[in-house]
Write a structure and sequence with these properties.
about 700 residues; 18 helices; 35 strands; about 20% strand; Reg_prop; Two component regulator with propeller domain; signal; WD40/YVTN_repeat-like_dom_sf
């Protein structure tokens, strides 16, 4: 079983720091699976009850829950529940409501008065139903009657019906049972997971993150509000743990340091046994530099808001790891993707053989045929991965600016950042805005040159890559103070229109050009571009670019992206209030442009409470699960022509909540309904909570 005590033990072992500001507590849902009963596999658990004792029926026997395990009650056989029939068919569910017996059958919903069934026909201003397959009935703590049927869910409150279908947010409608919680919510078991009704809103719990099997036979809720769910493969216990943002951050910092730190590099870990964190082993990713930089940025923001020595120590370690990526390569300023010892367990160069490269070029003619892809370091101790991409650069420059501003305090610390930033940018300038590998050729995804953008091969990338390069130059100018980088940016704008290209900051169509990590690269680069820009004309353009990008990300409920967007939009608001744009020399050929941008984009257009909502809902369990959602009633499939994997959004137009998706990383497409990150064989790093949390605190955007 995956035991909650593991999580609580780690929380209890965390080091004490300076007291954070008082924060409101929320409840964190944590699931524990019991897939054995006594000494044997649980199999299908038919029934579970919490009163007078917590007992369950499995394998034809009765078990009680004691000292954290299910113990067989010797000599007690599970009672066989006889099927009760009526003239309207088998009675699937039954409850008492205001002194009357209510029953559900395959044919409908009825009052049962002395064996006489009277049909109930619920209706509200939207629907009028004659329900079928009424398999769930319960009365909640407010005295309201709830039912679940194939038409949907109904609630009777003070004589008035409210009916819910997928359009109203109901995820699924093949019900098996129901139970009321002391907190006022109602939990419905279904043939594909659990549906939770909280007032007029619904949540969904399915897959191995929440259940050992999605077919729910029964469920019960104890007086503490703990939910016990009997499935075909065992029992799930869902508890509600009091939590604060800071406690959650401490947990995830410990999670990263325990299972995701490889020589200072941060990446996902691999599980040798599916779902079993005890079998975790360190892994590498294509973008160790970016993910390490994001973790370093999280710790830099943490240091800025808490002053904790550990935060600075982790930020410094991240800087040195990122710098090592540049130092290890023979080409000055060229950062590697990954560094591993020469005895790394995987045959990495065999995976990227010449034959592999030739095969890749069939689908991508620009794929780089370079071998070895993991050259040996000069000292012979390490292998490093080359063919570095724009992803890596976005992470490096995002981090370096934040580190320089918030962590580097002494002149020596500042000079260390200046050196690595200058080296990388000088490499790009030396090679005509290209990342050039040890073979003297540009990498597959490292071309930021004007000639590439004006070619048939690079036109679709010029918006994002122009924005990124202008951002890198702004960051480098800010850190080094060297005007040559400002001069280079001016040439790119005046001669090659990079600032014009940046108004279209990413691709939105056709579908095959739209990739979710471009959202991440765009906004991370926008942070440095906008933050360090002083020219009012450019700030107006970049504000419009920021909004153009945001319009295509605003429904994802991604705390990290919300924070980058809102923090920079708020900076624009401050500049407007300071009258920076009240000038007659801005865009003299069109005097309406500046005032129209000020008017249209004066304030941020995101919904700030979604930041807190996302952070609260990030699960403690960051294993990547297979969690298909394309069957859900509350999802609208994306009708865009050319879409590959199924994409979609909830009936309210927003992405599914992060605790209802298989992919928990905040650099992924929340509209991808079936995406999995490792299918139970990988755990992802807590950076995806830590970075938005500490960044939100730094920018005063949490609980605003």
């Amino acid at each position: 079983m995956r035991n909650l005590f593991f999580y609580l033990f780690l929380l209890g072992m965390l080091p004490l720091h300076a007291q954070p500001p008082v924060q409101p507590e929320f409840t964190q849902e944590v699931a524990t699976h019991f897939t054995t009963m006594g000494e044997q596999p649980a199999g299908s658990v038919a029934r579970i009850q919490t009163t007078p004792h917590l007992v369950a029926d499995a394998n034809g026997q009765v078990y009680k829950f004691e000292t954290g395990n299910w113990i067989l009650i010797p000599g007690q056989a599970a009672p066989k529940e006889p099927k009760v029939s009526s003239k309207e068919g088998e009675i699937l569910a039954q409850t008492t409501y205001r002194g009357k017996t209510i029953v559900g059958t395959p044919k409908g919903l009825f009052y049962n008065e002395k064996g006489l069934l009277t049909r109930i026909l619920p209706s509200d201003e939207r629907y009028s139903w004659s329900p079928r397959q009424v398999a769930a009935l319960v009365v909640d703590v407010h005295g309201d009657l709830w039912f679940g049927s194939q038409e949907g869910v109904g609630r009777l409150s003070d004589g008035k019906w409210s009916l819910f279908t997928g359009k109203e947010g109901l995820p699924y409608n093949q019900f098996t049972c129901a139970s009321a919680s002391p907190d006022g919510s109602v939990w419905f078991g279904t043939k594909r997971g659990v549906v939770i009704a909280r007032g007029d809103t619904f949540a969904y719990r399915a897959s191995q993150r929440w259940l050992p099997d999605d077919y729910v036979n029964d469920l019960a809720i104890d007086q503490q509000g703990t939910v016990w769910i009997a499935t075909r493969q065992g029992i799930s216990r869902i508890e509600f743990i009091p939590m604060s943002y800071e406690k959650k951050a401490e947990y995830f910092t410990n999670q990263v340091e325990t299972r995701h730190n490889r020589m200072g590099f941060i990446a996902q870990s691999e599980l040798q046994e599916r779902y079993n964190l005890a079998t975790s082993q360190l892994a590498i990713s294509d973008n160790d530099g970016m993910y390490t930089a994001m973790y370093g940025a999280a710790q830099a923001f943490r240091y800025a808001v808490t002053g904790e020595a550990e935060a600075k120590e982790l930020a410094v370690r991240s800087l040195k790891a990122c710098k090592w990526l540049s130092d290890i390569t023979p080409e000055a300023g060229f950062p590697a993707r990954v560094i591993i010892p020469t005895d790394w367990r995987e045959p990495v160069n065999e995976q990227y053989s010449r034959a592999y490269n030739a095969k890749k070029q069939l689908s991508d003619p620009q794929w780089k045929d370079i071998f070895p892809r993991f050259p040996r370091s000069k000292d012979g101790k390490y292998l490093y991965k080359c063919d570095t991409s724009s992803d890596e650069l976005a992470g490096h420059f995002f981090f370096y600016g934040i580190y320089y501003d918030l962590v580097a305090e002494t002149e020596a610390e500042k000079q260390e950042v200046r050196a690595v930033v200058g080296d990388i940018m000088d490499h790009l300038l030396r090679h005509g805005y290209k990342l050039v590998d040890y073979d003297g050729k540009v990498t597959r995804w490292g071309d930021f040159s004007p000639e590439y953008f004006h070619s048939v091969y690079g036109y679709d990338q010029r918006g994002l890559n122009s924005l990124m390069m202008l951002s890198f130059l702004n960051v480098t100018k800010h850190i080094t103070g060297d005007s040559k980088y400002e001069d280079a940016a001016k040439v790119l704008r005046d001669r090659h229109n990079y600032h014009i290209f940046a108004l279209h900051p990413k691709e939105y169509f056709p579908a095959e050009n739209v990739v979710p990590w471009d959202n991440n690269l765009c906004l991370m680069s926008m942070y440095g571009l906008f933050k360090y820009e002083t020219d009012p004309s450019l700030l107006l353009m970049y504000r419009q670019s920021l909004e153009n990008a945001w319009l295509h990300m605003s429904k994802q409920k991604n705390a990290f992206w919300d924070i980058i967007y809102e923090s920079q939009a708020n900076r624009f608001t401050d500049l407007v209030d300071q009258k920076l744009f009240d000038r007659k020399d801005l865009f003299t050929k069109n005097h309406l442009y500046a005032p129209s941008v000020v008017r249209d984009y004066y304030r941020a257009s995101n919904h700030n409470p979604y930041i807190a909502e996302n952070l609260k809902k990030v699960p403690l369990d960051l294993i990547g699960y297979a969690m298909p959602n394309d069957h859900r009633l509350d999802v609208t499939l994306d009708p865009t022509p050319g879409q590959g994997p199924k994409k979609g959004w909830r009936s309210d137009g927003f992405a599914l909540a992060i605790d209802e998706r298989g992919h928990v990383r905040q650099d992924r497409d929340a509209f991808d309904l079936n995406l999995t990150e490792g299918d139970g064989y990988s755990e992802h790093e807590g950076t995806f909570y830590l970075l938005p949390y500490y960044m939100a605190r730094y920018h005063h955007l949490l609980g605003k």
